[in-house]
Amino acid sequence: MAIRIAVAGKGGTGKTTFAALMIRYLIENRRGSILAVDADPNANLNEALGVTVERVIADILDATKNPRTVPQGMSKDMFIQYQLAQALVETKGFDLLTMGRPQGPGCYCYPNDLLRKHLETLSANYDYMIIDSEAGLEHISRRIIQDVGFLFVISDASVRGIRSAGRVRELVQELQLGIPKMYLVVTKITGDPGPLKEEIERTGLPVAGFVPYDEQVVTFDAHGRPLFELPSDSPIVQAVTSILNKCLI
Ligand SMILES: Nc1ncnc2c1ncn2[C@@H]1O[C@H](COP(=O)(O)OP(=O)(O)O)[C@@H](O)[C@H]1O
Ligand SMILES: [Mg+2]
Q: What is the CATH number of domain 3-247?
């Protein structure tokens, strides 16, 4: 089974950036095959990775609510499974699945069940599954993605970000998600993170490391350039590498 690593935290803190650089790290260190899952409703992992996504899971599940979309002679289950398989974007270094944002109201229990099974079957083909999630951990809390082994909670260098990270940890405990390894990563550091020390301790999360504010990332994002093209000696790539060298052993 794939080693499942989730990244979560408040919007705008740098989750997608961290997830993309982790995928880059795994590729460069030849750690094995990778399934990237963009589980943030505000999906943009594909942009950080430089790939185009045609279909997202939410649209497929929404479409299957209308029985007329199912071709004659095909069962609904088979049809959904076929569609889910089409949503996988395959690239040289990794494959990517984008969840998207469910549109319509109503119950998703049935498709979610299928999605859970699909993800289980799919992830068996990979060494790593990297999940870019939002702070509410939607897919993990609803057990669509299970057995997460590592959770990196991302915060920017603000009290609000750190408190939000603390709430992610509380959520994991309340829901008894049983994630064995959880870490805090503080990003966009511009000065001495000392004043945040107490707030960081209150989260109860061990600090995996600090990521400096790196102007180059902003420039890359502004031009829609994939983060894979950041130079290896850039401060952010160096910081993420040292965090992962330490944590992913
Ligand atoms: N270490 C960093 N230094 C400078 N800018 C960063 C850093 N990490 C992320 N950013 C910028 O912050 C913004 C939000 O990052 P993103 O990874 O999309 O956050 P999230 O996925 O948490 O919403 C982006 O414009 C990104 O370029
Ligand atoms: Mg994001």
A: 3.40.50.300
Q: What band does 70 get if pLDDT is binned at 50, 70 and 90?
A: confident
Nearest CA residue ID for atom 25, ligand 1? 218
Query: Is the pLDDT reported for residue 107 higher than 80?
Result: no
Rounded to the nearest whole angstrom, what is the distance from the C-alpha of residue 164 to the centroid of ligand 2? 15
CB 147 within 8 A of CB 1: yes
**Which ligand 1 atom is the nearest neighbour of the CA of 12?**
23
Tokens found for residue 238 = 């160096």
- What percent of the chain clears pLDDT 90, i.e. is strictly above it? 77
Report the side by side order of strands in the sheet with 128-132. 89-90, 95-98, 34-38, 128-132, 3-9, 150-156, 181-189, 207-212
Q: What is the whole-number distance in angstroms between the Cα of residue 42 and the centre of ligand 2?
A: 7
